[in-house]
Amino acid sequence: MGLLEKFFVFREARFIQRLIASVLVFFELLGALLFGYPLTPRGQKIDLDAWELVWSDEFDGNSLDPQKWMPAGDGMRRGGYWDAENAIVENGYLYLRTDYKPDGRFGPGWYSGAIETRSLFEKAYGYYECRAICPGAAGLWGAFWTFAHGVGSIDGSGADGAEIDIMESPFYAHPKKQMRNSVTHAVHFDGYGEAHQSVLIGAYKAVNPYTEFNTYGLEWNENEYIFYINGVETDRIGGKYVSQVEEWLLLTVEVGGNNAVPGANEAGVVEIGGNGIITANPDDLFPVDMVVDYVRVYDRRD
Q: Which residue of 5, 6, 203, 286 is 20 to 30 Å from 159, comparing CA positions?
């Protein structure tokens, strides 16, 4: 085969590859539009050379650093309890553990770990990223998010503080298998009552999020939020949703339900039966951990 023939064969192969890729993207977008299926991140890539690290925790010690983190709560939370003892640092990782404790500190029930930087580190704007494995069990989900005192203030805007859900993993046992290996982004403000406003920015695919590490990031400036998975943009939003005040970081695991009684949700349900632990997936093994490798915060270089 001559050089010119090789060129045309190569060009034809590239054309076919691009055509197939375009068709796949079309059907993925159609599935997202019609059925709410998750999308593959395809936006810009974050260039960390343009950013300067200003705060981080690599979880290299043998315990939680009290100068960086405090318990996000200690007591009843949704369908279980947040327990300071369930935030464990060892082997270079943070483990937010979920398990059933028949003789737990607050009574029998499901216990999970949750930590925050409130009063220790609060910041507006920048790039925020964690590298984590999501908790793999029905009835619970992990999250990396920010919060501010003004979230409860009702003024029609998130400027005075918003709950920014950089990552939530609520689809482990979703009835639609296409949803399961995806995470979501969302923003909430104006409290959690009748005036509550929120937007689910979308569901996006991660790489085996319950068994492999992925990075989840947020670029936040005065005008918009830009969300990332593994350094690739998933989506962005601006306007009334954008907080203009300092916020603190949270890493949490939630058990769905109310008043420490587990309830069904998109993550399935976890409950105690006569034979022990029963979940939507009989292969779930407890305790289950959300494993965090690091949390890092950057400012854009001048």
A: 203
Domain residues of the chain, as ranges?
A: 1-35, 41-300
pLDDT value for 13: 53
Distance CA 134, CA 253 (A): 9
Which residues, in sequence order, are CB contacts of 276 under 8 Å at separation 6+?
A: none
Q: Distance (Å, rounded) from C-alpha 286 to C-alpha 154? A: 40
**What tokens does 287 get?**
């305790």
Classify residue 232 by burial, with Cβ atoms within 10 Å: 0-12, 13-18, 19+.
middle
Distance CA 5, CA 211 (A): 46
Query: Mean pLDDT score of the chain, rounded to an integer?
Result: 88
Beta strands 122-123 and 224-229 are unpaired
pLDDT for 21-60, tens place per residue? 444 444 444 444 444 679 999 999 999 999 999 999 999 9
Tokens standing for residue 54: 């200003």
SS3 24: helix
Q: What is the pLDDT of residue 45?
A: 98
Query: Which residue in this structure is represented by tokens 């999501």?
Result: 134
Give me the CATH topology for the region 41-300. Jelly Rolls (2.60.120)
Q: What's the confidence (pLDDT) of residue 284?
A: 62
First to last CA, the chain: 54
31 or 115, which is more confident? 115
Say which residue the tokens 């793999």 belong to. 136
Instruction: Give the integer Cα–Cα distance in Å for 225 and 218.
Output: 7
CA atoms within 13 A on the CB side of 42: 10
Measured distance CA(290)–CA(134) in Å, rounded:
5
Please state the pTM of the whole predicted model: 0.87
